[in-house]
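Following up on my earlier thread - several people asked me to post the actual chain instead of describing it. Fair enough. Here it is, all 570 residues.
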Amino acid sequence: MNIDRRRALALLGMGAAAPAAAEAAGVGGGVAFNHGVASGDPLQDRVILWTRITPERPGGEIAFRWSLDPVDRRAGGGKRGEGTTGPDRDYTVKVDVGGLQPGRAYTFRFDAVGVTSPTGKTRTLPVGPTKDVVLAVATCSLYPNGYFNAYGAIAALPRVDAVLHLGDYIYEYGGPGSYGMDSKVAGERPHDPPHECLSLADYRRRHAQYKSDQQLQAAHARAPWIVVWDDHETANDSWKGGAQNHQPDTEGDWNARKAAAIRAYFEWMPIREPAGGGFAINRSFDFGDVVSVFMLETRLTARDQQLTYEKDLPKTPNAADLATFRTRLNDPSRKMMSPAQEAWLGDGLKASVGSGRAWQLLGNEVVMARLFTPPVRKTLGEAAYARAVKDLPEDVTSRLTRMDQAAALDLPYGLDMWDGYPADRQRLYGLIKEARANCVVVSGDSHAFWANELYDAREGGRRVAVEFGATGITSPGGGDHLKTVPVGEMFARHNREVVFSDQAAKGFVLLILTKRDVTAKLIKVSTITDRAYRSEVLRTFHATRGAEGVSALSAARAPAAARRQGRRRL
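Reply from S.P.:
Thanks for posting it. Predicted structure:
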């Protein structure tokens, strides 16, 4: 399908609202809705509505009105309300609208100082027997690295019941030479602010920049979003006590930076904020009798500091070094999730299965599968390897050398993933097995597509779940600079749990779930450096539920319900 930004926006009837010359209470001049509208965290009877009102001259409070109307125009069901916003929330607006009917589609908008916002579409969750559920899964959008064409493709979908965003919605980097600034389009999309985000004002400006993108606005206006952060909403490779990209000596207190970043996140995202504050945003959503979605927080509440090969293993380790490293890696006290979140998840999985829901889906920030590093040189052979690396820059060939070193030691590919916390992963698998869940995991962070089968480390390697990893919207993947090396194919060949991987494509995952089947379409866009693009299905994978858990993945033709998923619109 050929799509451009104008067509995606036209499908939603979107356009920027013109500033008004009227006065707002306490604010001089006009206002505009420069950042679109959004909805999120849908339940059976309520949904979050969001916007941001931009004053011409900030300073005081702005009064606004909101309205929500059923798409089907049947009598009743419309809602109206009003409120105020101001500089203490960066002029963002968030309304938790209750008293809605389950499984009903709505449109919504805001008004302030004589200006009307763009119109958004949203939907409450269904109750009881449900034919199917369609979810778009997105992650990792680096603004300078390319146009958000994949968001435009989500906006243009004929049907999507909700968008699951698995984190790295923004990136904290900034300044010349920073991440993404070598892109062909970085000159017109530089970071704002033009430095790394550290303060509340910095993170607010970065969120504002991202939501100025009209393709992202269109995707937000298309359907409700269910979101969780990963690391770059705060800083790279964050954990409960710090981050790889945070230096206390020059960048101040980590807890202050973390609090500022999360405050901006809650202001700017259509998410229901946790009662009493804090970072515990694990929560669940039930889509009729088809699927329960559990969103996991594995960054800021409990994660122990990552091990790294650079600091925790000598460059030329001996047997004792390796034994010590493996003992630390497998330490059962090392955590991704807190005991409270584990208990919440275990109870939720059992309740979902007990209620008769077909699927239990984990919205998860980082790849869960075991990913051992493939031996690149050995796999290609010396002659093919020499041809493949002949014209690659030194930093890329150095990366391949490090991969070969890790492969020779039979070590995991990434320690910031679940591979860095194998005991905690095993505990999570125990929760899935105890509940007898048919579990689907969706994962972000890796900037690559994955179709994986997850196996228990015990009991002869019983299959526990299937996993679909979403590639980046724009963030560079391992294959971007390794076009001559089939990295994805090597991962699949070298790892039992990897069925398929593509390390270069940009796009998202479209999930279609019925009572019996789950179908995952890995949808890629043709380019992120041209506003005109095509979207196409790269691969399709299919699994069925069963009394003993989810089946193995197949590339079989999608079932009829999945092929018909485009017939109903919000």
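DSSP finds 15 helices and 26 strands in the chain. That should answer part of your original question.
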